[in-house]
Amino acid sequence: MGKVIAVANQKGGVGKSTTAVNLAAYLGSRGYKVLCIDIDAQGNCTTGFGIKKKGIPASAYDMLTGKAKMEDTILQTEFENVSLVPGTADLAGAEVELIQMEERFKRLKMQVLTVKEQYDYVFIDCPPALGLLTLNGLTACDEILVPMLAEYYALEGLTQLMHTFRLVRSNYNPTLDICGIVFTMYDQRLNVSRQVVEEVQKYFPDKVFQTKIPRNVRLSEAPSYGKPVMYYDKNSKGALFYELLGKEFLGEELDNKTKWRMRRAMT
Ligand SMILES: Nc1ncnc2c1ncn2[C@@H]1O[C@H](COP(=O)(O)OP(=O)(O)OP(=O)(O)O)[C@@H](O)[C@H]1O
Ligand SMILES: [Mg+2]
After folding, report:
1. Which residues contact residue 37 at a Cβ distance below 8 angstroms, ignoring those fewer than 6 apart?
2. What architecture (CATH level 2) is domain 3-266?
3. Which of 10, 17, 230, 241 to mutate to test the pocket of ligand 1 (most atoms within 8 A of CB)?
4. Residues 6+ apart with CB under 8 A from 92
5. In this structure, what are the phi and psi dihedrals at residue 196, rounded to the nearest 5 degrees?
6. Phi, psi (5° rounding) for residue 45?
7. pTM for this model (two decimals)
């Protein structure tokens, strides 16, 4: 049975979409069946998989507002084992439309339940807000994956996110759990980065991924080619670190060759 993971953080530009796209692509390449659901009006996850937003027959918006069935919104990407429910600009209106709808927190969950058994992993790329769309994401998922920057302000954001996490758990999703917190665009040379990591580890022991994604220009270039980084430049640092994250996510030990590649990439 598929595991549903919401990639969420109300702070903007922390690597949610990049993590959803690249972790999904890696897991797909390993033979797992993966579905990504883009519930952000920016549609970055959709672009990241090379899907053109013009001419999409049915999107996440249609699925959330009851205009289309989930299964009719799913597109195959050109990447191994990865399917996508595309996100389009009309999702911006969904925040308002959903307010008047029945079961407004559970609409995504009801749709996800109709397909989740066909996948090993379902990732939900949430928008940078704690509005109804993200609340739908948190209600629909089993676990939340939180990409964050190792900056001081990120700590305040995390406190707020955890408040929402508890609220959703007590009202809509009693088994909601934390998959993990992953630091992105990480610079290990900065003192503040290490301090923020320590602080987060203190509050969430065992929840911080050991793998920290460094800043890598290939990761920021890949979306403009509509490709996950491993298909854009498989030898890049970005591809290596999302592979490492994927392995840690799967609970795998690193083999010697991978450890060697990691040490070489970090120097
Ligand atoms: N490790 C990285 N190294 C370099 N650039 C990165 C890295 N991770 C993400 N980026 C770039 O940073 C920007 C923000 O990343 P991304 O879109 O994944 O964040 P987000 O949290 O999904 O943003 P939003 O909140 O707007 O949805 C993008 O331009 C992306 O290409
Ligand atoms: Mg995003």
Report:
1. 60, 84, 85, 87, 108, 112, 122, 123, 124, 125
2. 3-Layer(aba) Sandwich (3.40)
3. 17
4. 41
5. -65, -45
6. -65, -35
7. 0.97
Q: Is 61 helix (H, G, I), strand (E, B) or coil?
A: helix
Mutate-to-test residue for ligand 1 from 9, 16, 18, 130, highest number of ligand atoms within 8 A of CB: 18
Q: Cα separations (Å) of 53 from 50, 72, 226?
A: 9, 16, 12
- List, as one string, the DSSP characters of 93-141: HHHHHHHTSTTTTTHHHHHHHTTGGG-SEEEEE--SSSSHHHHHHHHH-
Q: Give the whole-angstrom CA distance, residue 246 versus residue 67.
A: 35
Low-confidence ranges of the chain (pLDDT < 50): none
Q: Structure tokens of 100?
A: 């008047």
Which residues form ligand 1's pocket by a CB distance below 6 Å? 12-18, 40, 42, 44, 128, 184-185, 213, 215-216, 219-220, 223
Residue 262: what pLDDT?
Answer: 87
- Write the residue with the smallest CA distance to atom 29 of ligand 1: 220
Q: Which atom of ligand 1 is nearest to the CA of 216?
A: 3
Q: Where are the domains of the chain?
A: 3-266
